[in-house]
């Protein structure tokens, strides 16, 4: 779905254990991080805000979408079990048609209980989850656990972030949250994190249904860097940027400013292009 169509639809809707040396990558490649675990978490950057987490026989898609018009990477899955989680219902974070291409009859979409009423669940098996309720994504083995934690949506819609643990690693994915006051509590309860995936484009919107107030609906690069420090993240990976369009405006040079603030704040950045992997060996 085009950006304009997404906005129109949703605006009106009721580590040296881990220290990667990552500079800007021009071609997809694997970024290998050291680990002593026999079962390693493997992470692929998908389109926009999406990631794919693989561990043993389980694949977990997070905010996975596919839009042919914007040359998004298609979703693929090679494991026996495949499931998904979403931070919120907006169509640039929840794409049921894309999930159906990799789901089978046993697949589940894990969704926060306040988000679930907002989404199209036809032909998709869903499981409602409460805030701070851990879900065993790997089904019975406890190898891959996902837990929703607080976030704040730019439109006042229900939204969460997700803490994901497995293979001795812990990451957090924050969708397109605004800045909020829960960072320290999340860090104290679940941190430190090996990687924090944080939005950076400080999007502003101007369409017939939405008047641009000058206040971004998503965190900006500096806020993402500070949030990663409060989360006690060893590395921060920026997401949700690089697609300005009519009626949808990003902060100038979001990646460049993110890298500048990361350097000034002594934060380790991880820049992943669409399709690139991070894995521990």
From TrEMBL:
Keyword Hydrolase in annotation: yes
SUPFAM superfamilies: Metallo-hydrolase/oxidoreductase
Keywords assigned: Hydrolase
Domain Metallo-beta-lactamase: 78-241
Highest taxon of source: Bacteria
GO molecular function, one term: hydrolase activity
Pfam families: Lactamase_B_2
Record InterPro entries: Metallo-B-lactamas, RibonucZ/Hydroxyglut_hydro, UPF0173_UPF0282_UlaG_hydrolase
Protein name: MBL fold metallo-hydrolase
Lineage: Bacteria, Pseudomonadati, Bacteroidota, Flavobacteriia, Flavobacteriales
């Amino acid at each position: 779905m085009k950006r304009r169509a997404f906005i129109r639809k949703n605006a009106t809707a009721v580590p040296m254990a881990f220290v990667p040396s990552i500079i800007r990558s021009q071609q997809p490649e694997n970024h290998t991080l050291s680990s002593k675990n026999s079962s390693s978490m493997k992470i692929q950057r998908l389109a926009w805000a999406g990631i794919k987490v693989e561990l043993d026989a389980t694949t977990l898609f997070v905010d996975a979408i596919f839009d042919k018009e914007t040359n998004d990477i298609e979703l693929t899955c090679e494991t026996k079990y495949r499931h998904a989680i979403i931070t919120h219902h907006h169509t640039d974070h929840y794409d049921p048609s894309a999930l159906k291409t990799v789901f089978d009859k046993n697949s589940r979409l894990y969704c926060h209980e306040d988000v679930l009423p907002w989404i199209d669940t036809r032909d998709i098996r869903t499981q409602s989850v409460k805030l701070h309720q851990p879900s065993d994504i790997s089904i019975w083995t406890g190898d891959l656990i996902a837990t929703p934690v607080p976030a704040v949506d730019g439109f006042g819609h229900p939204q969460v972030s997700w803490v994901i643990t497995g293979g001795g690693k812990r990451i957090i994915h924050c969708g397109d949250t605004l800045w909020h006051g829960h960072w320290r509590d999340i860090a104290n309860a679940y941190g430190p994190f090996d990687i924090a995936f944080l939005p950076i484009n400080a999007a502003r919107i101007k369409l017939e249904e939405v008047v641009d107030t000058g206040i971004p609906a998503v965190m900006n690069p500096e806020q993402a860097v500070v949030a990663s420090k409060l989360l006690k993240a060893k590395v921060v990976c920026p997401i949700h940027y690089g697609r300005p369009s009519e009626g949808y405006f990003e902060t100038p040079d979001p990646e460049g400013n993110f890298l500048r603030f990361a350097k000034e704040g002594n934060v380790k950045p991880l820049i992943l292009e669409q399709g690139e992997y991070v894995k521990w060996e």
